[in-house]
Design a protein that fits this description.
Blueprint (H helix, E strand, L loop, with lengths): L3 H15 L2 H4 L1 H8 L6 E6 L3 H11 L7 E7 L9 E6 L6 H15 L6 E6 L3 H4 L9 H14 L3 H9 L8 H4 L4 E7 L22 H10 L6 H11 L17 E7 L1 H14 L3 E4 L6 E2 H17 L2 H4 L7 E7 L1 E2 L10 H13 L5 E7 L11 E4 L3 H7 L4 H6 L3 H8 L2 E2 L10 E7 L1
Parallel strand pairs: 1-2, 1-4, 2-3, 4-5, 5-6, 7-9, 8-10
Antiparallel strand pairs: 9-14, 11-12, 11-14, 12-13
């Protein structure tokens, strides 16, 4: 049997590989070639956009028409053959992303009924495909984005606001073209809601301007005046609503989910079972404050340690692996460094205390936890003892949102660099 730390890292790599664009895009290409389109334009946005574009270009016939433009995060780009790759800001939108979105929208509008628009979408597209409604400036959008990120609002609610302040998201990209539209999507959203992934540029939007205003009220966000005025105008029916289900402008649009957090969790579970572990997959829809989600996981761990098979049947037989995915949030209270995965692990350590048989990893499958240079971190049975020996107080670091600093000091960060895919967070707890 592999050592626990090695098994944690190998399981994470397995989860990431299950969402590798090179693996999930190629099987989709043949059917699109068979459509016989006169002109094919590939658009896209997200942390996986460049890798998806490269995979699409490699699978598309070399002698067939193909052009396109995708936008990805700085440092996540790569050569994609006939498809241009632009790097832009994430999580804060910038001028490069806005210019790319404008070019993309113009290209889609120039396609005819005999043409095909292929849209490659993945997590991060909401910030990377930034094209605010005319009254709202890029600086105003950046101000609002910062407030949303700091509020603790879940990603699906954040994206309701962003869809209603965008000229390309919320179904507007697909509605702008006469061409057939086929979207290939790698999901980073709990539940795989296509309208939420990259804020749904090719999906009907069931939410309204009024819903967006309610999100701002609920999370006590004071937006720029131009944003509020636009949303209020939309609620009154003066500003246009996003395309809704049944909108004829989306009649020639299809979307296909090609990668998801749940598929990655199942792949990792298979790897763990091959090593002799029982597995419990809690699912990919666990959301909420990272420290609250950690406390729930800690409760399940204690139940497994005490009652095991009585509570969970054969799946509770040790050694056992507990897996989950989804996207937690962090409400900023301190001035420390870190993302939601190190916050989760720090809270898990605080909730569990020292347990000799428990190991854990929490990491973002895109290789970036928040805005730091790590994917996540590892929690070991001796983590708390080493922290105490180094004079590091777990509770104080948690209060300061300093998960990165805590695990950096112990040498337990997981650093992968950009993985060029994104199916959100991966959490694994091993009980030997």
């Amino acid at each position: 049997m592999m050592l626990p730390k090695d098994l944690l890292l190998e399981s994470f790599r397995t989860a990431v590989a299950a969402a590798d664009p090179a693996r999930v895009i190629e099987p989709c290409v043949g059917a699109l070639v068979g459509l016989g389109a006169r002109r094919v334009f590939v658009a896209g946005a997200g942390k996986a956009a460049a890798a998806m574009a490269a995979a699409f270009d490699a699978a598309w016939p070399a002698d067939a028409s193909l052009e396109g433009l995708v936008v990805t995060r700085y440092g996540h780009g790569q050569e994609a053959g006939r498809i241009e790759v632009v790097e832009a800001g994430h999580p804060m939108p910038d001028a490069a992303g806005m210019a790319g979105a404008e070019r993309m929208l113009a290209a889609a509008a120039g396609l005819g009924a005999e043409d095909l628009l292929v849209v490659l979408l993945s997590g991060g597209g909401s910030s990377l495909l930034a094209l605010p409604v005319v009254p709202l400036s890029l600086d105003g959008l950046r101000e609002l984005t910062a407030a949303l990120l700091a509020s603790g609002a879940p990603i699906d609610e954040m994206n309701i606001v962003r869809r209603h302040l965008s000229r390309i998201q919320g179904g507007w990209l697909a509605a702008s073209t006469r061409a057939r539209v086929h979207a290939l999507v790698i999901s980073d959203v709990a539940g795989d809601d296509l309208a939420a992934i990259a804020s749904g540029p090719c999906s009907a939007d069931p939410s309204t301007h009024a819903d967006a205003l309610e999100v701002l009220r609920r999370w006590r966000i004071d937006p720029p005046a131009t944003a509020r005025e636009w949303l209020e105008a939309g609620r009154r029916g003066v500003a246009p609503e996003t395309p809704k289900p049944g909108d004829p402008r989306l009649a020639r649009t299809e979307a296909r989910l090609v990668g998801s957090a749940h598929a990655s969790l199942e792949a990792a579970a298979g790897r763990l079972e091959a090593e002799g572990f029982s597995t419990i997959v809690l699912g990919d829809t666990l959301v909420g404050e990272a420290r609250d989600v950690a406390r729930v996981h800690a409760g399940i761990v204690r139940e497994l340690l005490v009652h095991g098979e009585r509570s969970f049947g054969e799946r509770g037989r040790r050694p056992v692996a507990l897996l989950s995915g989804g996207e937690c949030t962090v409400t900023l209270r301190g001035k420390g460094r870190g993302g939601r995965n190190t916050e989760f692990l720090l809270a898990l350590a605080d909730a569990l205390g020292p347990l000799p048989d428990v190991w854990a990893i929490a990491a973002d499958t895109d290789g970036i936890d928040g805005v730091m240079d790590n994917a996540g971190a590892i929690l070991a049975p001796d983590t708390l003892a080493r922290a105490a020996a180094a004079g590091i107080d777990v509770r104080a670091r948690l209060d300061d949102n300093d998960g990165y600093g805590f695990f950096e000091a112990l040498g337990d960060l997981v650093v992968t660099g950009p993985t060029r895919t994104n199916v959100n967070d991966f959490r694994l707890i091993l009980l030997s």
